[in-house]
């Protein structure tokens, strides 16, 4: 209620943002469950009309792009929570992989949908802000003597990126327990890149 006792309606902007959040939540849930997701299904799951859905996302591709961007924003936020408290780079990397895995698990199968519409290069480019942080950590680890120096840093980053997504695929296909994946990824990375 307003100061004068009248009912205060949320601003249109707040309503719009709530709708966008509900749509993205619904799309994330549906894309995680099914290989084919229609805009009608997303609208129904989000509890909004098709006009509202299309008012925010003109196409399925635009919606999926927004879900990918949101997942990467969440991954960045999870990485921000990993405190660099002076531990060796490999220990911090282990924490980052764990945080990233948790986010990846929440957005399961989104990558599969994105690759059905876009190239692997498009998806990799969208990961650049996250991967730049990983690259900086590998560089620091090389300076500390934690990681080998005879392999290009870009290859180290590519290897980690590929392993995480391969682990996600293996877990989705039931060949790997999701809970074991972060440790297995780190074991592989450290086996390959320890001096």
Automatic annotation (TrEMBL):
InterPro entries per the UniProt record, alphabetical = Homeodomain-like_sf, HTH-type_TetR-like_transc_reg, HTH_TetR, Tet_transcr_reg_TetR-rel_C_sf
Q: In which residue ranges does the UniProt entry place its DNA-binding region annotation?
A: 38-57
Q: One GO molecular function term?
A: transcription cis-regulatory region binding
Per UniProt, the keywords (alphabetical) are:
DNA-binding, Transcription, Transcription regulation
Cite a single Pfam family from the UniProt record: TetR_N
Q: In what residue span(s) does the HTH tetR-type domain sit?
A: 17-75
**What protein name does the entry list?**
TetR/AcrR family transcriptional regulator
Instruction: State the species of origin.
Output: Solicola gregarius
Lineage of source species:
Bacteria, Bacillati, Actinomycetota, Actinomycetes, Propionibacteriales
